[in-house]
Amino acid sequence: MALTTLPASAGADEVVEVIERDGGVIVEDFVDEPTRAGLESDLRPILANLGFGQDDYFSGTKTRRLGALFKHTRHAQAIARQQHFRAAADHFLCVPEHIFLGPDRVTTVPTVQVGVTQAIDIHPGEGSQPLHRDDSVWQWRHPEGGRQARVQVMVAVTDFTADNGGTLVIPGSHKWDDDRAPRQEEAVPTEMKRGSGLIWLGGTYHAGGNNRTDTSRFGITVTLDLSYLRQEENHYLSLTLDEVAALPDDIRRLIGYQASEPTCGWIERDGIMRDPHFLFEDGELGAAQVSMGRRETA
Ligand SMILES: O=C(O)CCC(=O)C(=O)O
Ligand SMILES: [Fe+2]
């Protein structure tokens, strides 16, 4: 079963309906050509100066990854604002819940925030990633009252094909519980023209694919996440970096300058997703890399 592709003229209802059913959908012309070309010309030169990933479990060894995209290109803004993406995030994430304040039943509606911005450039010879759910960063459980925590997009900067590592997706896997392991033969490749976007849920199993061609597959992923998946008090803005540096190591880590398995809280430096505590280790990058956790089964 291939993923459904909708034209850019599709309504929000159609996009939501297909995602409800399959866990993901491809939208053609997700960004216009000037935006796609701008993303490519702003980011390719930066990527070209980065090394490859350093682990064959997740990040790959023939893949270049760049984060902090709002710093590197103004065209990333168009992705975060794209209408189908936002409509899907509104539908799946901005779900009202009630709480009680004494006798008063009060409705709360979460907002969304950008969780990840990452350019992913898969070079020839890269193998496929293990199939995974990106909401694993919070150990999200399924079904969590049917709630989703993340709506994500992969924008094709180059064409995505079955041969060049087009994102593998298991349709319908957003409905699976946590005891079912994903199998490679259940996954279908995302085949889409450059400028298109694959929108999928944090609970949908997917993976970067194997690039068997001689050119790179360049995509940009942006996530919209539940805004409350963060610290209640915003220590990042309450203390300056100098004030944080003056704190003892254990307190610094406690207020957020530490990543959590698997891969939550990273900062990209030199193309590697790093545990942020390296920032305070005498300016040394160190070997700090986020960890996916320990493998229990082969
Ligand atoms: O590059 C891709 O197609 C997917 C990458 C991915 O799923 C990830 O790095 O979490
Ligand atoms: Fe992923």
From TrEMBL:
Gene3D superfamilies attached to this UniProt entry: q2cbj1_9rhob like domain (2.60.120.620)
InterPro entries from the UniProt entry: Phytyl_CoA_dOase-like
Keyword field: Dioxygenase, Oxidoreductase
A single GO molecular function term of this UniProt record: 2-oxoglutarate-dependent dioxygenase activity
Keyword Transmembrane helix: no
Keyword Metal-binding assigned: no
Pfam family of the protein (one): PhyH
Name of the molecule in the record: Phytanoyl-CoA dioxygenase family protein
